Amino acid sequence: MVYNLYSYICGYIGVALSYVVPSSIKKAIDSSIDKIYTGYIRRRFSSFGHSVIKWKPFLLVGEQYITIGDGTVIGKNIQLTAWKNNGKDPEIVIGDGCLIRENTHITAINNIHIGNNLLTGTNVLITDNSHGQATYEQMLFEPIHRPLYSKGPIVIGNNVWLGNNVCIMPSVTIGDGAIIGANSVVTHDIPAFSIAAGIPAKVIKQNNE
To answer: Is 2 helix (H, G, I), strand (E, B) or coil?
Structure first.
């Protein structure tokens, strides 16, 4: 009963505010918060251009190993993590003009290089590592306690589009202009100017000059 009353009051306040505070003002407030937050964290990064990380991220780790170019927007609830592993410094490079949507997870112990103008859907995973090597000996341990392992770096070219829920796995190169369909898992290289989809992702169309 109390919870229902609380929900009703909150809903009524929301309706009242919609008349008092136009949506344009709310957007301006949200934008200001994002810019203030970005200014607060930018000095932690190896390099950070005129870009924005929206408030609030889910997890930021190893910012000193991460470079972000100009004109890039990174959405809310991002996980952006670069983990030092066995004494080796990781690296994540995100180019200019990228739009990386909400709930994306980008994680490296090796190297992830993202070119300019990447567009992602929501819930995208880009990872160059896994918890262990799936051997019997390592599978005896809890996944969180298995040593991080990378099969190789990831390279994503310019003007690439990744649909919702796409997973980019280790040791993959995606060429310029490629389109990866929603819900795909990319385990092998995808050539430039192609369309790929599926689990694992396969090229379904190749555009040539």
So the answer is: helix
Q: Please report how many Cα atoms fall inside a 13 Å half-sphere around the Cα of residue 190, on the Cβ side.
A: 37
Q: Which of 105, 131, 145, 188 is catalytic?
A: 131
Q: Which two tokens stand for residue 1?
A: 């009963």
Amino acid present at 27: K
Q: What is the DSSP letter of 190?
A: B
Residue 186's beta-bridge partner residues? 168
Could you read off the pLDDT tens digit of each residue along the chain, which spans 209 residues? 666 788 888 888 878 877 777 777 778 888 999 999 999 999 999 999 999 999 999 999 999 999 999 999 999 999 999 999 988 999 999 999 999 999 999 999 999 999 999 999 999 999 999 998 889 989 888 998 889 999 999 999 999 999 999 999 999 999 999 999 999 999 999 999 999 999 999 999 999 86
Element housing 25 (H / E): helix 23-41
The neighbour count for residue 80, using CB atoms within 10 Å, is: 25
Q: How many of the other CB atoms lie within 10 Å of CB of 57? A: 16
The kind and range of the H/E element at 84 are none
Q: Is position 131 annotated as part of the catalytic site? A: yes
How many whole angstroms separate alpha carbon 100 and alpha carbon 39?
18
